[in-house]
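Consider the tokenized backbone below.
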């Protein structure tokens, strides 16, 4: 976390591993279900948008890439918000933001507006929601952290299964615009579930405001009002008054310290390899999830076939995978880093087999396998907490999500461009599978090679009280007053 304003950082409270923590897990599960349900089943909306706006596949794919990657790219910002304001306020705000983005998308006149409303607004809102629920669940659980993370991460996949059916029915009844309005109304329930995410410790913003109020209350009994000549500008920094220029310097230093604190976590070789692996994984794994249904339709594999959609099968496999991988990660004899690398490698092999598929059944099997391996999203916060600890979890996970967001944002447009030029998905899927294999090997080598201790970064300089000054503000009639 960013260095606190004074003294040594407060120790993290002991994880409860139960009790109210399970209520937090349930609320987090439902919040992710409602927030990520529609983006996870975007394959249902994607063909409708192609018909509605008559744009190319690459241009339309930006909606899916931004809603999936936009929120992750701003992951470091989301983590800072959670650290400073707390998980519950951030989750409440994200619920309003996600619901507003869905409803705004119902009135999109063109694809550019849809990219903003659905891609950016909903994407950033989900990024805030994801950061909030992951951090608060990791604080509530230690020994059962893998199971707890597996349960909440399953919410996105269960939402994908339910919303793939729900959105299909809503589109037939009310059209794509009416569907988005209903989805937005459902997303408002995120606010209600977020209200039950009780924090274990007060947020930094709350502590600062409490200190400010306490300081003013302590000064009130003196009944001494400063004169206009000696008007003091008091700002809450070490409980000493400072000048405006000094306060700006202090705030700037704190922001720089926060940035250096986030970047310092990348000095760990395994974490850096995990960031690169996640970048390549998202670059290669998300496009098949988005384009697989369109591939089946354009290849004529869906003719005469009445069965569960590929999007639903992918979400079902992901639901099982997230819970199963979370349970496996909690086993003491399992190396979670190698487990994650294995899931990335198997995903690469599955994507490479897509161009060889000749029937809808083949695509269904691959959808389930890729969905199960996509359950490794449960492992990302788990592995991060194992590598850097819960003290640096927010910053490290934010940086990790930034790399993943870049991959998610670039993957679909790249595949769409390949299709627009070649009128085939084969080359694009081979490229995606190659990225996954490289990501697997990168993380695998970083995990098995001898690991030397990284040099500790220089300690962040505290804001000593001697650096702060108090001053008076001169009024216009007192030219001789000292500033």
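A designed sequence for it:
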């Amino acid at each position: 976390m960013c260095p606190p304003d004074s003294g040594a950082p407060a120790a993290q409270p002991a994880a409860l591993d139960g009790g109210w923590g399970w209520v937090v897990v349930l609320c987090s599960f439902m919040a992710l279900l409602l927030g990520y349900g529609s983006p996870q089943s975007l394959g249902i909306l994607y063909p409708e948008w192609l018909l509605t706006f008559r744009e190319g596949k690459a241009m339309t794919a930006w909606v899916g890439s931004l809603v999936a990657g936009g929120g992750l790219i701003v992951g470091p910002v989301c983590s800072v918000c959670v650290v400073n304001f707390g998980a519950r306020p951030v989750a409440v705000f994200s619920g309003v933001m996600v619901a507003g983005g869905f409803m705004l998308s119902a009135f999109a006149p063109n694809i550019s507006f849809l990219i903003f409303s659905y891609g950016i607004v909903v994407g950033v809102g989900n990024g805030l929601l994801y950061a909030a629920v992951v951090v608060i669940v990791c604080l509530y659980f230690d020994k059962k952290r893998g199971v707890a993370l597996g349960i909440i991460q399953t919410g996105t996949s269960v939402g994908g299964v339910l919303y793939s059916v729900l959105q299909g029915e809503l589109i037939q009844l009310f059209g794509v615009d009416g569907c988005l309005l209903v989805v937005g109304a459902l997303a408002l329930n995120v606010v209600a579930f977020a209200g039950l995410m009780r924090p274990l410790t007060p947020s930094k913003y709350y502590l600062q405001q409490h200190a400010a109020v306490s300081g003013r209350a302590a000064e009130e009994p003196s009944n001494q009002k400063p004169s206009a000549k000696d008007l003091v500008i008091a700002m809450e920094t070490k409980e000493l008054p400072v000048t405006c220029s000094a306060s700006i310097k202090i705030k700037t230093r704190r922001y720089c310290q926060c940035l250096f604190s986030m970047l310092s976590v990348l000095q760990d070789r395994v974490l850096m390899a995990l960031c690169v692996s996640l970048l390549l994984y998202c670059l290669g794994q998300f496009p098949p999830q988005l384009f697989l249904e369109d591939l089946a339709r354009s290849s004529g594999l869906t003719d005469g076939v009445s069965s569960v959609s590929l999007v639903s099968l992918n979400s079902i496999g992901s639901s099982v995978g997230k819970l199963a991988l979370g349970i496996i990660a909690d086993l003491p004899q399992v190396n979670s880093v190698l487990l994650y690398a294995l899931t990335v490698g198997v995903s690469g092999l599955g994507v490479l087999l897509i161009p060889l598929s000749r029937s809808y059944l083949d695509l269904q099997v691959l959808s389930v396998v890729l969905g199960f391996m996509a359950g490794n999203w449960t492992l990302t916060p788990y592995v991060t907490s194992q590598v850097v600890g819960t003290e640096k979890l927010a910053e490290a996970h934010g940086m990790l999500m930034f790399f993943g967001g870049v991959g998610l944002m670039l993957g679909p447009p790249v595949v769409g461009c390949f299709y627009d030029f070649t009128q085939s998905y084969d080359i694009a899927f081979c490229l995606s599978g190659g990225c996954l294999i490289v990501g697997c090997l990168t993380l695998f080598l970083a995990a098995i090679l001898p690991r030397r201790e990284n040099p500790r970064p220089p300690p962040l300089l505290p804001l000593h009280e001697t650096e702060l000054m108090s001053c008076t503000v001169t009024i216009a009639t007192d030219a001789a007053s000292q500033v």
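The chain is about 70% helix and 0% strand.
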